[in-house]
Design a protein that fits this description.
- Helix 2 (about 20-30) packs antiparallel against helix 3 (about 40-50), helix 7 (about 115-135) runs antiparallel to helix 10 and helix 10 (about 195-215) packs antiparallel against helix 13.
- The chain is built from 18 helices and eight strands.
- The protein is mainly α and about 425 residues long.
- The strands form three sheets. Strands 3-4-7 form a three-stranded antiparallel sheet. It has a three-stranded antiparallel sheet with strand order 5-6-8, with no helix packed on it.
Amino acid sequence: MKWWTWIVAASCLVTAAEAQSVDDVLRKSFTGEIGNGTLDSASGAIEAMLLADPEDDSALAALGVVRFLQSGELLFQNTYRYGGFNLPVQASMLVGAGGVGQNVGFNPEPEAIDYEGFRRVVEEWIAAVALAEEALARVGDEEVKVRLPVGLARFDLNGNGEGEEREQLWRFFVAVQRRFAPRQADADAFEIAFDRGDVAWLRGYCHICMALGEFLLAHDTQDAFERTGHVLFAANETPFEFLKGDRKSFDFGTGVDAADLIAMVHLLNFEVVEAERMARARHHLLETLRLGNEMWRWYDAETDDDREWIPNIHQRETALPNALITPEMRDTWLRALGEGEDLLRGRRVARFWRGDGERGIDVEACFLEPRRFDLVLWIQGSAAAPYLREGEFTSDRLWRDLQSAFDGGFFRYAFWMN
């Protein structure tokens, strides 16, 4: 069913029950009482509400969340379309860990994808994320709050137009949050009270995603795609078809030849083909940092305590068990945001790990004056040569303070807090 059909159908349902809140419409959309339980039907129902009141901040916040989920769904669908979950190492992301059946991820008839098709996949993903950010950016109400039954949302992973129970989002929480291992009954009650601070948080995540996409498209990755793309897509078009055969040099039961993984690292060596995309990536990263500060201004001002996604230092009623924030975590995180902005704006330089210590890396110039990206040479240090200059360094203590504040689990928290 086309997106506009969902809007028309949902509009009739919403008009027939005008007293329904956004919370009601979301839950009924996710459970299939409105539409068929897909994210498309959920977005259609919310857009129908916005036809009646385009400035409904709760509906805008809900639409932004659903659109962000749709952007992830689109990425999964394209991965499935081209056989991206056909190898055991990839299918493990869906099988067991998330409780999602392998027959959801395995595509018996994957479509062929060439390098230009791969770039279109990334471009479509960026555009989908931008739609989510656009809706969230329109939210203005300081008191906005939407109860999101996110565990019930269903990813149509295989693109068959149906949201099945085995595709419910709660099953993926097991894969990313081991301490939170819900069952179906728990998922029915799992809600996030999505508030104004969370709007800024999700906007920041949108900009991170767009920055990653722009960085990728700024470079010519065709050689890597043709030589190792079969590790990601079973049906990639390549002049090296023999690499897809069953004979492998170093297969340790994963379905992937270790030689291909080594080649992947070797081929992380890309010419810049669209330099303006690097400038866009920098802009998105700056927006992420700005929104990171904004979200904490909203969080710090909260006086309620209601199923918080990210709590302030006083809140204890969290959506995820024991997901608490200490003053040290908050303050150190804000310091990191400040130093990150200083780097991207060229006010400071990053400490260089080689040489005499007199010069540092001009991170702003890396984005505004991009050169060939070579991961191995960056690790070795010689790729940094064009960007070395004297200047004020970032704090040498920041990394130690972050590790201390987050009890050695900084990266796990960073994934959550963006």
